[in-house]
Each structure stands twice: as structure tokens, then as C-alpha cells.
Design goal:
25% of the residues lie in helices and 28% in strands. The chain is built from 11 helices and 27 strands. A hairpin with a 2-residue loop joins strand 12 and strand 13. The two termini are 23 Å apart.
């Protein structure tokens, strides 16, 4: 679930109350079980000279520098200390626990984690769960969900929302509490910890959001595109604190965006109806998000919810509109004679040179700064760069006229253009909105009570 004074909203001052939360009193920090990897092979290694301590291989604790687990001939086996000549069988009912006394953590693939790592075999796959204290976990989550350079008020708001969300998930799954991906909230281990995220978490330690004495479902998203959405229009339940409010996410690189889909992509996404001839929005919310739409294809029609349509096409949000447009690559293939074809080739070659030089110049300049501009991020697309001096000369002696193209081909509408706003489900706190309010001097308490209505900020 990606990015996240006196605050004024609709002319009203928002004042957060901070009171002790009696039912949730705890003598020590909560330990979270975070699912960090789901795979068929894994590799652990120590960060330095201090070995890994592995429990579960035999009757005694083993000290190793590396540990590999992979499936061999249908069974999971493990190898210690880099030795691939001797594999030990890992029973499916066995769990491994990997610990380290090294403050630099444990390497799992390309990431490091603090706390302990447990390995479970579930449904023929390896599940790695990180047992870590909630405050240490949050230092990484804040850095994984927001840029460390963002205003402290935004980082603090993210810390409180993420803490509330994580604790509300405890006990909901069997062998883990929360996922480390956008399915819940992003957690990338030690590499995402920074001085600013440590400060944001430490200065809000134990603060959570409640409604009528209970932890709220503190969902958040990247940006709403101007107005957040009520939870009941995205999911089954309408929560009293997850209502629609005007957003402050105009700085978001995805405030406005466009995506195009060619016939091949559309046929793959909607193979059941033979691609897409048209998409009609049947029902939308007050904010303009698609709630239901009909896809018309060459072999029938299909009704989908906005969320289903978003998943099929990989859209950034459901705040979208659809339009079928002509494929310009077809319309541009009708030169009238040989000389026009040669002229078109030279013009194309010149444009390629300009594009190549412009792209290289932009790539060079972007490497000098840490971020692209919002507009550049919103419109950037990766194209292969061409060497302006390696373009071959026009094949003047072997020119062939293209096949004739009818006027109906030139106006054929077979490209789907999607114009959208925002990124994410649009419910709860907008991370770019938190950034916008923080830039105006609004503190983290007012940011939280702006996006989560009628809540209290309490000490756990």
C-alpha cells in the first residue's frame, strides 16, 4: 500500500485528542510476524564474522555462515556453509528459526532484516516470516512507503497510520500477521531505515488511531486525484471514519496520467470476449471512480467492477475514462509516391537523431539529481535509444510500395486510451495529500484527523 499547527478543512479547525487507550495497555513492545518472502528457494547469510544461529535442523542449535533451501526432486532440502555437495532433507512439518546477534541483521537474498526469520513449508512453498518489534518494523515501513526527504509531519502521520494498521492486523492470519507488500504495507527491511524515519517513529512512539475505543483500519494510498473515496464504494463496509474528503495531492506525479493499449494487449486482457471494441461506464461514484463497466468485444460483452477492470488492465486507479482512438501507426503508412517515401524516411531519421540526443541529454541531467520533476515522472516512458550515426541509408534501389490502405483502415478505432487521475484505491490517507498539507505547515495530528474523520490519537 504504497506512499503517505492548525489544519483547516472546509473552514473548520481540526483538533486531535490524545488520551490513554486503556484496553490496549501493554507492558512491552508488540512483536509482529511479517511475511517477507514466498518462494521455492531461499538463501540466508551472515552480514559479517558473526555466524547465523539456526534452530530446527537437528537437536542442537547450528552456527552457520550461509543457509540455502531449495526443492530437489520434489522435496525441500538445505545446504549449510555454501556446500552444495551435501543436501539435508527438510521435513514439511519442520520449521527453521534463523537468529543473529549481529546488529547489522540477517541477509535474505538481497535484503537484510533485524529480528528473527522463520521458515515454514506451506502448500509446497517456502514462507519466510520476520519476527520483529513493531517500532523497529515501522522505521523501515515509513522509509519504504515515503521518501525520506519528505517533511517530518508527513513522515510522522505515516508512522502513526502504519502502526495502527499493522496492530489491527495482528492475529488475522495463521502463521503471520501482515504481508510486506502493497497487499498490506511495504516493508523492505534494514535498507529502508534512515535517520528521518527513525525520528518520525521515535517521536510518535506508541501513538495509534482509534474510533470508539478500538483501533481503526488505517488504510492509505498514494494519491486520490483530487478527492478521496468512501470505503463503502470500494469495499463492502462503509466505515464512519473512511469518508470522502478533498485531497491536497496536486504535487503527485500521478495526479493526471494516460495509458494506451493496443489490440494485442486488449485481446490478452479480455480473451473471453475477443478483445475490446468499446468500454462503457455503467455506474460511477460521486468522485468519478468507475464502479461498474461493460466491455464490448468481438465475441460478446462482459460486465466488471471498477476494481476488476483496474486489475485486468493494470491501471493506477479507478478514477478513469475510456476512449477508442485510431491507430496512428496505420494512418502514417500511406505515402503517395516514391519521393514522399524517401522524404518520410529522412524526416524519420532526423527525428530519431533528435530523440536520441534529447533522451541522452535528459538521462544525463536526471542522474545529477535524486528525483525527476513531477511532470516528467507523470509522462516518462522508456524507449530504446538509437545511435544517430548508425542509422542505415535509405534503400533507394529496392523501394517497395506498401500495400494499399483503405480510408476505413485509416479511421479504424482500435487503440484504447485511458485517461486517469491518482494512484491507489483512494480510501483513507493520501500520502501525497499528507505531503501537500505538511508543506503548508499542517502538523501530523491535523493531517491524520483530516483524512480519518472522528478518530482519536491515543497512546498504546
Amino acid at each position: 500500500m504504497p506512499f503517505r499547527g492548525w489544519g483547516v478543512a472546509g473552514g473548520l479547525l481540526l483538533i486531535a485528542t490524545i488520551t490513554p487507550l486503556e484496553p490496549l495497555n501493554a507492558a512491552q513492545e508488540e512483536t509482529l510476524r511479517v511475511l517477507v518472502l514466498d518462494s521455492t528457494q531461499i538463501r540466508f547469510r551472515a552480514d559479517g564474522n558473526k555466524p547465523l544461529l539456526v534452530i530446527g535442523i537437528g537437536p542442537n542449535q547450528r552456527r552457520v555462515s550461509t543457509l540455502k533451501v531449495r526443492k530437489i526432486k520434489g522435496r525441500f532440502s538445505l545446504a549449510l556453509n555454501g556446500s552444495s555437495s551435501r543436501w539435508l532433507y527438510l521435513p514439511s512439518n519442520r520449521q527453521l528459526r534463523i537468529k543473529s546477534k549481529d546488529p547489522r541483521g540477517i541477509w535474505l537474498g538481497k535484503r537484510r532484516y533485524s529480528g528473527d526469520l522463520w521458515v515454514f513449508v506451506v502448500d509446497g512453498r517456502l514462507k519466510v516470516v520476520n519476527y520483529v518489534g513493531v517500532e523497529r518494523y515501522l522505521v523501515s515501513v515509513v522509509g519504504s512507503e515515503m521518501p525520506k526527504s519528505w517533511p517530518m509531519a508527513a513522515l510522522k502521520a505515516q508512522a502513526v497510520a502504519a502502526r495502527t494498521y499493522a496492530l489491527q492486523q495482528v492475529g488475522r492470519n495463521g502463521f503471520y500477521d501482515i504481508n510486506s507488500t502493497e497487499a498490506n504495507q511495504v516493508y523492505l527491511g534494514i535498507e529502508s531505515e534512515t535517520e528521518s524515519t527513525r525520528k518520525a517513529v521515535a517521536s510518535t512512539r506508541s501513538l495509534v488511531l482509534t474510533h470508539k475505543g478500538k483501533l481503526i483500519n488505517a488504510v492509505f494510498h498514494s494519491s486520490s486525484g483530487g478527492t478521496t473515496e468512501a470505503s463503502g464504494l470500494v469495499w463492502k463496509r462503509q466505515m464512519p471514519y473512511l469518508v470522502s474528503v478533498p485531497d491536497h495531492d496536486q504535487h503527485s506525479p500521478f495526479y493526471d496520467w494516460q495509458m494506451k493499449f493496443d489490440p494485442k494487449q486488449l485481446k490478452a486482457a479480455f480473451s473471453g470476449v475477443g478483445g475490446v471494441k468499446n468500454i462503457q461506464v455503467l455506474r460511477s461514484s460521486k468522485t468519478g471512480r468507475v464502479l461498474k463497466a461493460r466491455v464490448d468485444g468481438s465475441r460478446g460483452e462482459l460486465e466488471l467492477t471498477g476494481q476488476e477492470l483496474r486489475r485486468r488492465l493494470g491501471l493506477k486507479s479507478t478514477l478513469v475514462s475510456f476512449e477508442m482512438i485510431a491507430d496512428k501507426s496505420i494512418a502514417n503508412k500511406k505515402p503517395s509516391n516514391t519521393s514522399s517515401l524517401v522524404s518520410a524516411w529522412f524526416e524519420s531519421s532526423s527525428n530519431r537523431r533528435k530523440t536520441s540526443l534529447f533522451a541522452r541529454r535528459n538521462r544525463s541531467s536526471s542522474q545529477n539529481g535524486s528525483h525527476q520533476s513531477d511532470k516528467a515522472l507523470a509522462s516518462s516512458t522508456s524507449f530504446p535509444l538509437l545511435n544517430a550515426y548508425s542509422v542505415p541509408p535509405p534503400p533507394l534501389l529496392v523501394l517497395k510500395m506498401p500495400p494499399s490502405i483503405s480510408s476505413s483502415d485509416l479511421t479504424k478505432k482500435n487503440i484504447l486510451l485511458v485517461k486517469g487521475s491518482g494512484s491507489g484505491h483512494g480510501v483513507g490517507m493520501s500520502q501525497w495529500g499528507a505531503y501537500g498539507l505538511a508543506m503548508k505547515g499542517v502538523n501530523f495530528r491535523r493531517i491524520l484527523t483530516y483524512y480519518y474523520k472522528g478518530v482519536a490519537i491515543r497512546t498504546l
